[in-house]
Amino acid sequence: MTGSYSVVDFSSSVKSKKIACLTLDLEQDYGDLLVEPSYEGLSHIPELVGFLGARGIPLTCFIQGSILDMYPGQVKVLSTIDTEFESHSYSHPTPRQMNSEFEIKEGKAAYSRFFGCDPLGYRAPLGVVSDSDYALLADCGFKFDSSIFPSLRPGAFNNLWKPTVPYLINSCRIIEFPFTVISNIIRIPIALSYIKLLGAPYLWLLRNSVLPGLIIFDFHLHDLFPLDSVSKLPLGDFPPMYRRIFRRVYRRDLDGMALLENLISLLQVKGYTFLKLIDVFEAVAR
Length: 286
Description:
By secondary structure, the protein is α/β, with parallel strands linked by helices. The protein has eleven helices and twelve strands. 36% of the residues lie in helices and 15% in strands.
């Protein structure tokens, strides 16, 4: 415990000691990387629904608010399986364009118009959330957040000092569910993009490591499916390191669905139960 946060012990609140939450960031293709937004990935929602529905795997979906306004039919398809919806800003802007008050409030408003109720959870674009954002989330009625990568991304954030387990923001009583990393020492996120980036050695590490009791696993539709809009990525605008990363992660010959299936099978073998993030939050809140 520190003056700013308190680690949350959820182990006594849930029956299973090993829990995995699959979380989808439902957003425009490649987040903020394209000059003009594209939504080609939404056409693949029926494939994801069929995959998860056949396996009885629940889903937590952090949804960009503008998608609710522009593509309600696609969202309804996702609603046909066991899906929890939470807010993921309104327009998923670049860091330079970010207006947190607009994104949080407009994202909530779009959510409320569509679902007829308010979201409880929030995820910030690029995993960047500030103390003032937490205060605003609390003022807007949010109860939990899942934005923090407790790791390092050069040029974006350095969260190596932050907890790797859920924690309560004491000042505003928001619970943060950080993205899961392999351990306190090996702070590589357990996310589909990292599996695609690091390949077989990373899967071997996941298979042979003692993983945390709660896994918050993140993916996007553009991680799962090859999209034509990848050709519009302005790679020349990025530093050489990021150009190499994007070329590898978004290769059209990588089968994201097969990697997701491998990850699910790996966790099942390790004895994990799949739940929605709201299930974990409600257990902790009780």
